[in-house]
Amino acid sequence: MKTHGTAVWRGGSTDGEGTITGKSGAIAKVAFGSPIPHQFEKKGETNPEELLAGAHVTCYTLTLAHLLQKAGLKPERLEATAEITLEKGSTGLTMPSSHLTLKAKIPGADRAKFEELAEKARTGCFIGQHLKLAITLDAALEN
C-alpha cells in the first residue's frame, strides 16, 4: 500500500505561498515560518500516513525553496510528491521508504546547481532526517 502528499510552492522561501495536498484532497495551505498551523480544509478525510507524506514533501519543498533563494534563484514553481511505502509485517505496519519526485521551473538555474540543491534539500530536510526510512529522489528541471 502506498499514499502520497504533494506540495506546490510559488515564489521564494519568505515571500512565497503554497499548498499541500494528499491522496484524499486538500490538506492545508502553507507559509514559510508561520507560527500557527493553518486551518485544514474540509475536502475529505485524511489519515496519518498521508499527513506524514505531506509533512515530508512540504519540508523538502520549503528547504529547497530556501536553498534556492540563498543561491540567488527564485523558483517559478516547485512541485514535489512524496510517496510513502507501507508494508504489513509480523509486527504490524512499517514504513520502509519515502520516494520524492520533483518537477521544478526555476528561471536562470543550471542543471548542475539545481541537482546539487535538490540533493542538499533531500538530506537537509529536518522531517526526512528524523524518519527511520530510506529516502530517494527523482528531480527534473523544466524549461
Structural class: alpha+beta
**H/E element sequence:** EEEHEEHHE
Describe the main β-sheet briefly: 6 strands, mixed
- The count of helical stretches stands at 3
Strand order of the largest sheet: 3-2-1-4-5-6
- Alpha-carbon distance between the two ends: 34 Å
Shape: globular
Q: What secondary-structure arrangement, pairings included, does this model have?
A:
Blueprint (H helix, E strand, L loop, with lengths): L1 E9 L6 E6 L2 E6 L17 H23 L6 E13 L2 E14 L5 H14 L1 H5 L3 E9 L1
Parallel strand pairs: 5-6
Antiparallel strand pairs: 1-2, 1-4, 2-3, 4-5
The gist of it:
With 143 residues, the chain is an alpha+beta fold. The chain has helices spanning 48-70, 111-124, 126-130, and strands at residues 2-10, 17-22, 25-30, 77-89, 92-105, 134-142.
Describe the fold and architecture.
The structure is a single chain. The protein is of the alpha+beta class. The chain contains 3 helices and 6 strands; from the N terminus they run βββαββααβ. It has helices at residues 48-70, 111-124, 126-130, and strands at 2-10, 17-22, 25-30, 77-89, 92-105, 134-142. The protein has a 6-stranded mixed β-sheet, with helices on one face. Helix 1 (48-70) crosses helix 2 (111-124). It is globular and about 50 Å long. The model is unreliable at 33-45 (pLDDT under 50).
How would you describe this structure in keywords?
40% strand; 3 helices; alpha+beta; 143 residues
